[in-house]
Amino acid sequence: MRIVATTTDPVRLSFLRALLADAGIGSVVLDAHISAVEGGIGAFPRRLAVATDDEQRARAVLTEAGEATA
């Protein structure tokens, strides 16, 4: 698995997942349940991961949509 995005914004995270799904790329949200630890304040970013083989294509999809991340 490779991390292709990190965000504290749940709406953006949903959008990024939709972009990848439309391109046929499966994704997994890591740290999705950390809110139980942080009290729901949104301080800890969630990480969006894809399979290693899909990383380049996923980054291309995100870049094309103007959502490129470092």
From TrEMBL:
Where's the DUF2007 domain? 1-66
- According to UniProt, the name of this protein is DUF2007 domain-containing protein
- SUPFAM superfamilies, per the entry: GlnB-like
Lineage at the top is: Bacteria, Pseudomonadati, Pseudomonadota, Alphaproteobacteria, Acetobacterales
Looking at the UniProt entry, the stretches that span the membrane are none
**What's the domain of life for this entry?**
Bacteria
Gene3D superfamilies, alphabetically? UreE, C-terminal domain
